[in-house]
């Protein structure tokens, strides 16, 4: 008896094979089911042209849709859960217990007056990060290198949006399958793959309950408080909208609006017989805004004044960035994507540099004996002021054609100051030392005892030196600490405060939203790292000039500083009773300095923590550090130590 079987929902006929084969068949079928549902292996291999097409139309990423059945997948890839409706994320729970509290009363010079525990820092509540979604789906098996390159690009996308204050999530077909209308799209036979892709994208977005949907080649490229980015961060989108001239790269709208739109599209007469209306649909799909927007026509508002987002679609790449476009061919796909990633990274870095016209300032209060303390800050400052590595150094981001490209001969300024200069034209980097560390360095003492403290050490020298010029003399230390806290917690941040006792800085990329240059030209001219590379690298800026009238210590003394710094780190961590008492005495001697140290330390620990938690949640989705092959930095978990 012939039985009706289906494979990928296409009916096939097969005769019952002889008995002994039935068992084998069963095993094979079972294997197929397990690999198919359980893993991410995909049924068909795309041709080279398919792959090339993918990049030519990054907005419509899928050349062909394998017809996946919409059954729940017990072992399948997991979907993002939609965020709860209108959650009030005051975010006290996850981080509260560690070593800080989030409290609206954080504007208090001394945390302990609120927390009643002097080791707990009081931080401002985390600001809400509205979710932002992108859709990524590869239909068939794809070249390993291409996938890796795409994952790196998506990671760059996630990083940039994270730094801009959003919570970026990468959706896929799995989310679309959770949408009630998914089967309707499935049943449309002969639907053009590009159109189907756009619909899946909307379904996945609808499943998440609306918000912001952007293409993964659309990145924020403007100052933090650019009107459009600020508007998007507010997470209230009264009207379903797209952005003029960005095609289908950016949509935003509320849950109701999005699902309403999907509903209307599904009931559109043109979709009743896709074969019949093929030409009309193709025409609509090629119009600015994409198929869904054009089937809806007037229901999607068009925002005309938005300039905060740069979209790297194929049209833009091939007209503006030819070097990259030339590589996006059949055989050099992965290479081309990597060039694109570098180009985007350089534009993000450039945008950041342009926002700080006076350059980078390294603050070094009490400069005589604190050279070793500033290594890390100087390192970061030099890389930030270096011209970004790029395949096309003279190019501008697509949304800002009149930018000022980085010029290695007139590079961003890098200066050292003995005190904080209160202007946002600088980006300021400082190192906050524990008072024990600073006392040891400043007074060049290998060990400190209470006698020395009482007889020789001045109180709160760090905070006083730091704010000597920006805050008038008559103000107290508590006032200074409070101003300092405001500075650390400010958004947008124009300062970065490291703590002297932490050795690694592994989340800089997420703070800035781009990767700092890691290689530099070894001559004074731009060059490339090897003959085949199309990337231009730039010389690394010199160390900043020493502060005027400061004696520059010679190497012998700096080596001593390094040694003292190491000893101080050990002392602060020490479990030894006597040592603990000494450290406590130093803390009590310089309450304001201690508070500044605790606050900035807790603040950056929480920032790392917030990101790590998010990274872990996203680890299994495209574009996570794990999928992009980025190893999380060393020293994870350092934030746990209470001291
Ligand atoms: C969120 O906050 C608003 C106003 O503070 C309140 O009316 C609403 O009930 C809260 N919603 C939830 C889910 O807690
Ligand atoms: C759709 O239109 C085509 C061409 O006009 C026609 O051959 C086909 O029968 C139609 N299909 C349905 C289900 O009406
Ligand atoms: C891509 O490669 C295929 C076969 O390898 C070839 O037929 C096709 O012309 C190539 N396409 C381009 C755009 O180079
Ligand atoms: C910086 O300047 C602003 C306003 O001019 C002021 O409110 C703030 O206290 C200053 N901060 C510091 C640390 O000097
Ligand atoms: C800065 O660049 C140098 C190479 O030029 C690299 O060794 C170093 O790790 C970079 N530092 C940071 C913080 O990115």
From TrEMBL:
Keywords, sorted A to Z: Membrane, Transmembrane, Transmembrane helix
Bilayer-spanning residue ranges: 21-39
Residue ranges, compositional bias (Basic and acidic residues): 618-628
Biased composition (Pro residues): 71-85
Region annotation (Disordered) ranges: 66-88, 618-643
UniProt superkingdom: Eukaryota
Extent of Gly residues compositional bias: 632-643
PANTHER family: YALI0E03476P
Protein name: Uncharacterized protein
Originating organism: Clathrospora elynae
